[in-house]
C-alpha cells in the first residue's frame, strides 16, 4: 500500500535525521524521545527492535495491531505505564522483550492468547501482582523472565512451571 510505504519512509527518514544529528553534533542530546505511535502503521513488519534508545512515554496500545510481528524488543529504555491488554492481538509474537524499563501495573491475563510466544522478558520493571493462571496456556514458551520486579508475588502456575526448565525462567526479586 502506497500510504503505508510513504509513512514508513518518512518515519525512517525521521529516525535517520536523529541519528545523523547526534553523530554530526556531539552536543546533541536525545533526552526526550517518545515511542512514536506511527510504528503501528508498519503492518507488514515482523521484526522490530528499538531497544537501548532512551525512549520515554508509554507503550502505544495500537502496537497490538501489528499481527505479523514475531519479535518486538523495546528493552533498555525508559518506557513507563502499564502493559497494554491490546497486545493480546499480537498472536504471531514469538519473542517479546520489555525488560529494563519503568513499566508498572499487573500482568494482563488476556495475554494468554499469545500462544506463539517462545520468549518473554519483563524483568527489571516495577510490575506487581501475581502471574495469571491463564499463562499456563502458552504451549511454546521456553524462556520467561520476571525477575527484578519486587512487587510481583505468588507462584508460577503449575502448567507453566512444568513447561519451563529451571534454567529458562528467573523469578528473583533482586
Secondary structure layout plus pairing:
Elements: H1 2-24, E1 33-34, E2 47-49, E3 55-56, E4 71-73, E5 80-81, E6 95-97, E7 102-106, E8 119-121, E9 126-130, E10 143-145, E11 151-153, H2 158-163, E12 169-170
Parallel strand pairs: 1-3, 2-4, 4-6, 5-7, 6-8, 7-9, 8-10, 9-11, 10-12
Task: Write a concise keyword list for the protein shown above.
single chain; 174 residues; alpha/beta; 6-stranded parallel beta sheet; 4-stranded parallel beta sheet; 2 helices; 17% helix
Written overview of the protein:
There is one protein chain. The chain is of the alpha/beta class and 174 residues long. It is built from two helices and twelve strands; from the N terminus they run αβββββββββββαβ. Strands 2-4-6-8-10-12 form a six-stranded parallel β-sheet, with no helix packed on it. The radius of gyration is 17 Å and the shape is globular. The relative contact order is 0.11.
